[in-house]
């Protein structure tokens, strides 16, 4: 009989065990999403590559800026889509390639090359008459306060590949 009393659980112990167990499950249920949120970026696969093919041969590039359209694969949470991008690409005097973003640094409008007959051989932003030189440098006295961003680029098998647009302090 003394053995039975030792193995019996009192009401107080039973409630203590039950509340501890339920509290533990509740805490685990609350912490699991937070832990998953914290470690999820580490578990994501790395990007395949930073550069995207434009399909444009480097031999086709001239000293005149050309509009080059290309598509990137964009992932927003669970939604994947193809996004069209544009770059102004040309060969500089030294033979190097310069790929400029068409996004005005003033308000984000689209700049065009030789779009305004009053400003020949310049990038022109129609939103507020913003002007950029051929090199992408902003013209003093016009709204843009910074030069056009330049895309990182690479050449593989004679085809131009573009990466991220990097803001420039000076052109």
Helix and strand arrangement:
Elements lengths: L1 H6 L3 H33 L8 E6 L8 E11 L2 E13 L5 E4 L11 E2 L9 E3 L4 E3 L17 E7 L2 E8 L5
Antiparallel strand pairs: 1-9, 2-3, 3-4, 5-6, 6-7, 8-9
Pfam family, one: Rieske
Keywords: 2Fe-2S, Disulfide bond, Electron transport, Iron, Iron-sulfur, Membrane, Metal-binding, Oxidoreductase, Transmembrane, Transmembrane helix, Transport
InterPro entries: Rieske_2Fe-2S, Rieske_2Fe-2S_sf, Rieske_Fe-S_prot, TAT_signal
Gyration radius, in Å: 30 Å
Please bin the fraction of helical residues. 10-25%
CATH class of the largest domain reads: Mainly Beta
> In the CATH hierarchy, what is the architecture of the largest domain at level 2?
3-layer Sandwich
The CATH topology of the largest domain comes to: Rieske Iron-sulfur Protein
**Taking all residues together, what is the mean pLDDT?**
88
User: Which strand order spans the largest sheet, edge to edge or round the barrel?
Assistant: 1-9-8
Order of helices and strands: HHEEEEEEEEE
Give an account of the 3D structure:
The protein has 171 residues and is of the alpha+beta class. The protein has two domains: 2-43; 52-166, Rieske Iron-sulfur Protein. The protein contains two helices and nine strands. The strands form three sheets. The protein has a three-stranded antiparallel beta sheet with strand order 1-9-8, with no helix packed on it. A three-stranded antiparallel beta sheet has the order 2-3-4, with no helix packed on it. A three-stranded antiparallel beta sheet has the order 5-6-7, with no helix packed on it. Strand 2 and strand 3 (79-91) form a beta hairpin. It is elongated and about 100 Å long.
């Amino acid at each position: 009989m003394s053995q039975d009393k030792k193995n019996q659980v009192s009401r107080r112990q039973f409630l203590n065990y039950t509340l501890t167990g339920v509290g533990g499950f509740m805490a685990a249920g609350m912490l699991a999403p937070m832990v998953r949120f914290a470690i999820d970026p580490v578990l994501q696969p790395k990007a395949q590559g930073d550069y995207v093919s434009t399909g444009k041969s480097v031999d086709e590039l001239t000293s005149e800026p050309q509009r080059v359209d290309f598509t990137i694969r964009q992932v927003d949470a669970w939604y994947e889509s193809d996004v069209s991008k544009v770059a102004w690409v040309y060969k500089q005097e030294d033979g190097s390639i310069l790929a400029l973003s068409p996004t005005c640094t003033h308000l984000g409008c689209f700049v065009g090359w030789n779009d305004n007959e009053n400003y020949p051989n310049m990038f022109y932003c129609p939103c507020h008459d913003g002007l950029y030189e051929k090199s992408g440098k902003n013209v003093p006295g016009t709204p843009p306060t910074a030069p056009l961003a330049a895309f990182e680029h690479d050449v593989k098998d004679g085809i131009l590949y573009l990466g991220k647009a990097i803001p420039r302090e000076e052109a």
